Amino acid sequence: MKCLVVDDELLARERLTRMLDQLEGCEVCGEAADGQQALDQAQVLVPELILMDIRMPGMDGLEAARHLLKLDNPPAVVFTTAYGDHALEAFEAQAIDYLLKPIHPERLQQALEKARRLNLVQLENISGDSDVRTHLCARNRGNLELVPVEEVVYLQADQKYVTVRSATRKILVEDALKALEEEFGDRFLRIHRNALVAVQCIRALEKDSQGHVSVVLDGVEERLEVSRRLLPEVRRNIRNGA
C-alpha cells in the first residue's frame, strides 16, 4: 500500500516514515508539510493512504481531506494529532481512524489495517462538518486547481456551476451559491440572485444610461449588476464601510 506522510514537523515525518518502512506491505511514496503540498503530491504520486496531521499552518488536514474527495480515486485518510480533544471522538464515530502522538507501532498497524477497509462513503463523512475552507477547489483536466478564498473577488452562479473569480484566474466549482454564502458568512455580500462579491473588493457603484446599477470591484474589469431588490442593502453596506 503506497502511503503519503503529511506533517508540518520534519521530525514527526521522519519518525513516522521509519515506522512505516518497518511494516510489511507498506511503501512510503512521499512526504508533505501541509495540506496544499499533500494535494499536489497526491495527484502526482497517487497514494492509496495518506497519514495526515490535523493541525497544520495554512491548509489543515481536514480541509485537505475534503478536497481529496474530488479526485477520481481518493485515497483513504488516517489523521494524526497531538491533541486528545473531543473532536477525535467524532472522527472515530465516522469510521475515520486517527493516531494520537506519540504514535506506537502496534496502533499504527491497526490503523493501516482499518484504512484498507475504508471506502469513499466513509471518507465523505468528514466533509460535512469541518471548519470553513481556506481554498475553493475545482477539477481541471483531471487535476485539482485551488484558489485561496482570501483572493476571491466574486462568485457567480451559472446553471449548475459557480464561477470563482480572482484577480488572476477563473475556476468553476460545483458548490451551490447559497451554500457558499452560508459557509463564508460576512466575507461575501449578495448583490444579485446569481452573484456574491467579496466585501473587501467593493470599490464603488456606477449607473449606466438606462439606470442599471453595477458594482465596481478591485482586481477585475468586469462590472456585476446589482439587482433592484438588493440595491438598498448593498448601498447600506458600502456606506457603513463593510
3D structure, described in words:
- This is LytTR family two component transcriptional regulator.
- The modification 4-aspartylphosphate is found at residue 53.
- Residues 136-240 form the HTH LytTR-type domain.
- Keywords: DNA-binding, Phosphoprotein, Two-component regulatory system.
- By secondary structure, this protein is α/β, with parallel strands linked by helices.
- The protein has 2 domains: 2-127, 3-Layer(aba) Sandwich (Rossmann fold), CATH 3.40.50.2300; 135-239, LytTr DNA-binding domain (OB fold (Dihydrolipoamide Acetyltransferase, E2P), Beta Barrel), CATH 2.40.50.
- Helix content is 29%, strand content 32%.
- The strands form 4 sheets. Strands 2-1-3-4-5 form a 5-stranded parallel β-sheet, sandwiched between helices. Strands 10-9-8-12-11 form a 5-stranded antiparallel β-sheet.
- The chain is elongated.
- The termini are far apart.
- The relative contact order is 0.10.
- The mean pLDDT is 87.
Summarize the structure.
With 242 residues, the chain is an alpha/beta fold. It has eight helices and 15 strands.
Give the mean pLDDT: 87
| Count of separate structural domains | 2
Q: Which residue ranges are poorly predicted, with pLDDT under 50 across at least 5 consecutive positions? A: none
**Distance separating the two termini:** 51 Å
Main beta-sheet annotation = 5 strands, parallel
In the CATH hierarchy, what is the superfamily of the largest domain?
Answer: Response regulator
Question: What structural class do the secondary elements suggest?
Answer: alpha/beta
The number of helical elements comes to 8
Strand order of the largest sheet: 2-1-3-4-5
CATH architecture of the largest domain: 3-Layer(aba) Sandwich
Helix % is 25-40%
Radius of gyration: 21 Å
Q: What oligomeric state best describes the polypeptide chains here? A: single chain
Could you tell me the CATH topology label of the largest domain.
Rossmann fold
Per CATH, the class of the largest domain reads Alpha Beta
Q: Given the C-alpha coordinates, what overall shape results?
A: elongated
InterPro entries: CheY-like_superfamily (IPR011006), LytTR_DNA-bd_dom (IPR007492), Sig_transdc_resp-reg_receiver (IPR001789), WalR-like (IPR039420)
Keywords: DNA-binding, Phosphoprotein, Two-component regulatory system
GO molecular function: phosphorelay response regulator activity; transcription cis-regulatory region binding
Domain HTH LytTR-type: 136-240
